[in-house]
Amino acid sequence: MQFDFIEHQLLVLTSDGRQKSLALRPQSVADFYRAFLQALSSLGIEVRIWPMPVEVPNPVRFDLDHEHASYDAEYAHRFWTILTRLVPIFSEFRGRFIGKHSPIHFFWGSFDLASTRFSGRRAPVRAEADSITREAYSHEVISAGFWPGGAEVEGAAFYAYAAPEPPGFKTATIKPEKAFYSPLGEFLLMYDDVRQAKDPRKDLLDFLQTTYEAGANLANWPRADLESLPDRSS
């Protein structure tokens, strides 16, 4: 299945050459969900889907959600364009690290593009956390990404955090100057500040590199074993 944000359609393709397409347009979640299941069934694809959205306030079952029905093609395309331009920069940053590293991936729940580095060491168990959070942070990580914003942050932003957060991280010196430590427990660099910068690519790479170095140095990560040489942070 592929989302096409140029022609604005969802394509369902099978290995034997058959396909179905669904238009991405203003319609209720329930109507789209019903059409989606019908498209799968017409191709002989029978699946079981848990019909509850996650990581959103006041979730409503997909098949019962007639309230949310907006789709702005222009802004969907803009967001997709931003992601396609950011992936090569995050991939370049990922290439500096030879330890365990996530793919450059997109979280559908929180709608962020993410890149996560691992030290290889276990982290303290988060006994009070849910099972997903305990597994996600079972080992030391330094993560960064791009997020379109939400109730906590007005406007799109780049973020970076260390888990567990080492002492002194929140007061570390980070580049560029407009980056700041947020009450969310992570560094933020607003997208508009990067977009309007003289050299947006450099500012973003500086942010990714300096937040990583701050977390790795303060947490005593074995950087010599985890990073490629020569240093390409400039």
Q: Would you count the extended β strands for me?
A: 9
SSE run: EEEHHEEHEEEEHHH
Please report the number of helical segments.
6
- What overall form do the CA principal axes indicate? globular
For the report, how would you describe the main beta sheet?
6 strands, antiparallel
Overall mean confidence score, pLDDT: 94
Structural class: alpha+beta
Helix share of residues?
25-40%
**Contiguous runs where pLDDT drops below 50 for at least 5 residues:** none
Across the major sheet, the strand order is 4-5-6-7-9-8
Distance between the termini: 39 Å
How much strand content do the residues show? Answer: 15-25%
How would you describe the overall organization of this protein?
With 234 residues, this protein is of the alpha+beta class. The protein contains six helices and nine strands; from the N terminus they run βββααββαββββααα. The chain has helices at residues 29-42, 73-94, 131-136, 191-195, 200-218, 223-226; strands spanning 2-4, 9-13, 19-23, 105-107, 112-122, 139-147, 157-163, 180-182, 186-190. The strands form two sheets. It has a six-stranded antiparallel β-sheet with strand order 4-5-6-7-9-8. A three-stranded antiparallel β-sheet has the order 1-2-3, with helices on one face. The longest helix is centred in the middle third of the chain and has 22 residues, at 73-94. The mean pLDDT is 94.
